[in-house]
Amino acid sequence: MLLPFSTSKIWICTALGAYWLLVRVLRYRRRDSVSRRLNYPDRSSWSRMTLQDAHSMQLTLAELEFPTVFSVSVFFALFKTYGIPSISKLLVATGQLSASETASKRAADTGVVITEVVLNKPDSERAISGIALMNYLHGRYIKAGKISNDDMLYTLSLFVLEPIRWTAKYEWRGVTDFERCAMGVYWKDLGEAMKISYDTLPSADQGWRDGLHWLEELEAWSLGYENQNMVPADTNATLARGTFDIALFNVPSILKPYGFTTASSLLEPRLQKAMKLPQPPAVYTQILEAVVEIRKFALRNFFLPRPHFLRKEWFTELDGKTGRAHFGQYIAHPWYIKPKFITRWGPKALLLRLIGGAVPGDEKYHPDGYRIHELGPSELVGKGDTEMSETREELRARRMGSAGLGAQIARVFAPDFRVVINYSSNSDRAQSLMKELSSIPGPSSEANPRFHLVQADMSSKPSVQNLVKETIEKMGRLDVVVSNAGWTRMTTFTDIEQQVNDDDWDKCFTMNVKTHMWLAYAAKDALAENEGCFISTASVAGVKPSGSSVPYAVTKAAQIHLAKSLAVILAPKIRVNSISPGMLLTEWGLKFPEAKRNAAINNTKLKRLATVEDCADQVRVLALSRSITGQNISIDGGSSV
């Protein structure tokens, strides 16, 4: 039965109105709900915003709210730096842009590294490794005086400011002040991780009220830098033409002039002039503005917000066997794209084949994926391990991630052993480490479970006993025990008045001596059954009086002697050794004043501090050697010699 026309019209209008209202409510609800969910009700609370919360906010913008505009704006942010002659001259001089494939690989590598750094959790190994690689690649030129701090700061400013500007110009809504604050918190921390100085900003001495305050000062400085330094140069023009060639590589030849003019119309006049680009006809700008306004209106009123299961995924998880990941998109050549039927024979692939473009699958484009440390110029692959290792260690400590020696020991054992990890209270950090370990390739015949978490209080003898019991029940055996517990309190070592606290002595003796004895005793039968080994982490403070406190130094010396005693008592079935690191730039080591850290470096014969990677590698050597027992290995750059 058909309803009368007027009644049908009412129902249709009601349905459309209800749908429009639903779209509006859901779109703005997500915008407004994040600050409530993260418990930042007003600006006075923004000063306590954590890096993790800031990253969560930024991830929502990049994956759910504005994935297309954020992606394109980051590409153009990098492109915009080419309008600064001091930057463009260096890039042209590297020769990496001399051919289309090398230029597209550089663009792909840059995109992959930035995406890994920005979209992975700040305390993840992938983000930390990406920053370490960036710092290594930039560091060579910074040391040579070819990259200035101002150039670095300007580049950083564009990566945070351009997505905000493009969103305001091309999206259905702009970025809120709360979202701007979150982006400020995140990018300020990233700049610090990249050793970029903010001394040129007005509030550098007294500090910033919150991330938004920092961002506002950065934007003002960035615009001033642009006004002074974005001037015409041949090297700017060379980079601009080369970048447009990459961006339009897979566009049919007949359409490339139109694509070039359209892309040029996206640039502000100052940048067009600096790159010596012709001003596009006004009709292009008018058409673009009309299309943008139509898109804005449609998104705001007729399209429901993107659900989480349709979020933009920029890269894959690490392959558990190879440790590689694949990227999710490409512009010119399919670098690091996983070959699939749809990517090789789908409509886009068929069109690319028709016009002579490249599709995923060619070995020279690494269809097997990428490892972060292998990105960058081919001549540098495999180099810089020491520099990147030191950066990774410092960042793990700065970002409160799986930062310590225990976590790194778990990493080096993960490829060949099943690993049980004890944690005291931070379950989030422990779970994060577990997830990271699961991505590390293991033996082909993996036993399950490969990894297991146990919460235990190492200052409690029953808790230590339960730790060993649960480990054996879960894994069925014990081959290696690494005893990494310890405690101290920061004092002035040479001030005797600070060294007579009875509580300090009692706690140091419990955590630095008794805990190791309890653990060795609880594990001795299982270790003997498999002729295993027990390795404890002492300190160079136990070898040479030094460190954070006298109780710590004395009890660490006792710990070393305990290991030697156990080596005698538990032989021949069990090997017992200890390692004694010097100062490590872990979360604890960074509590020492910078002057003391620098003095520690100068006191070493090698003029460098040991890293957690150095120590973890030595633990693995002791675990695998069948002939070493009763030894204490100092890992301190020679400071105790």
Can you put this structure into words, describing what you see?
It contains 24 helices and six strands. The chain has 641 residues and is mostly helical. It folds into two domains: 10-303, no CATH class; 402-635, NAD(P)-binding Rossmann-like Domain (Rossmann fold, 3-Layer(aba) Sandwich). Strands 3-4-5-6 form a four-stranded parallel sheet, with helices on both faces. The mean pLDDT is 88. It comes from Alternaria burnsii.
Write the topology of this structure:
Layout: H1 5-37, H2 43-46, H3 51-65, H4 67-81, H5 85-94, H6 100-119, H7 125-143, H8 149-170, H9 177-193, H10 211-229, H11 234-247, H12 256-264, H13 269-274, H14 282-302, H15 341-345, H16 347-354, H17 385-398, H18 405-413, E1 419-423, H19 427-438, E2 451-455, H20 461-475, E3 480-483, H21 502-529, E4 533-537, H22 550-570, E5 575-581, H23 594-602, H24 612-624, E6 632-635
Parallel strand pairs: 1-2, 3-4, 4-5, 5-6
Helix pairs in contact: 3-4, 3-9, 4-8, 5-11, 6-7, 7-17, 8-9, 8-10, 9-10, 18-24, 20-21, 21-22
InterPro entries: MPAB, NAD(P)-bd_dom_sf, SDR_fam
Protein name: Nad-binding protein
Organism: Alternaria burnsii
- The number of helices is 24
Look at the structure and give the mean pLDDT: 88
In terms of DSSP E residues, the strand content is: under 5%
What is the H-and-E element order?
HHHHHHHHHHHHHHHHHHEHEHEHEHEHHE
3D shape: elongated
Structural class: mainly alpha
The total number of structural domains is 2
Distance between the termini: 98 Å
Assign a percent range to the helix content: 55-70%
Contiguous low-pLDDT stretches (5 residues minimum) are none
Number of strands: 6
Task: Name the quaternary structure.
Answer: single chain
Radius of gyration: 29 Å
Main sheet summary: 4 strands, parallel
Q: Spatial order of the strands in the main sheet?
A: 3-4-5-6
